[in-house]
Design the sequence.
């Protein structure tokens, strides 16, 4: 399900470009549990004058070897999985093709599962997805709402059940009743 887009300065051989794409894919497999054969990548080379970036943003010293990696993925991963992915990509690209950690820029674009079509004009993940399981906080909120609604039903039922009793009280008895004053003060 990931779509890998890699941007580099022009001039690298095809095997270098393919090595980057394959290592990013393997890092996704290791950290995001991406299935075998789910490998879709594009590598775009740019003229130096069209490959524009700040060489020192966040205090990171970037070189002409910068690789900008953008991954479009389903929005199902935790922050910890994302951090593990970033680390793993840097480790793998450090080994082959030998990129420095400072020259690996990664951006995730998260999309809902129904935003993928792998062919045939179908949203394959939407066809096979099951309803999401609500979180614990959502379930707790649901229980609270249910309890409040149940209490409201009981109060309403009690109100209507007492109506005949209130109507049966003689009016001269009701005339002698006065509601308590606000703030505990009596009436004068």
Sequence:
């Amino acid at each position: 399900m990931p779509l890998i887009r890699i941007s580099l300065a022009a001039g690298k051989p095809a095997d270098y470009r393919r090595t980057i794409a394959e290592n990013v894919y393997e890092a996704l497999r290791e950290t995001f549990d991406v299935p075998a054969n789910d490998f879709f990548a594009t590598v775009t080379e740019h003229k130096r004058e069209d490959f524009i970036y700040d060489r020192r943003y966040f205090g990171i010293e970037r070189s002409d070897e910068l690789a900008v990696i953008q991954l479009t993925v389903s929005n199902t991963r935790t922050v910890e999985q994302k951090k593990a992915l970033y680390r793993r990509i840097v480790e793998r690209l450090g080994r082959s093709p030998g990129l420095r950690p400072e020259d690996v820029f990664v951006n995730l674009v998260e999309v809902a599962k129904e935003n993928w079509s792998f062919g045939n004009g179908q949203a394959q993940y939407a066809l096979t997805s099951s309803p999401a399981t609500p979180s614990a906080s959502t379930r707790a909120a649901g229980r609270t709402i249910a309890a409040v609604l149940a209490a409201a039903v009981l109060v309403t039922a009690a109100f209507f059940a007492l109506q005949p009793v209130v109507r049966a009280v003689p009016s001269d008895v009701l005339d002698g009743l006065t509601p308590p004053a606000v703030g505990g003060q009596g009436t004068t």
In short: The radius of gyration is 32 Å.
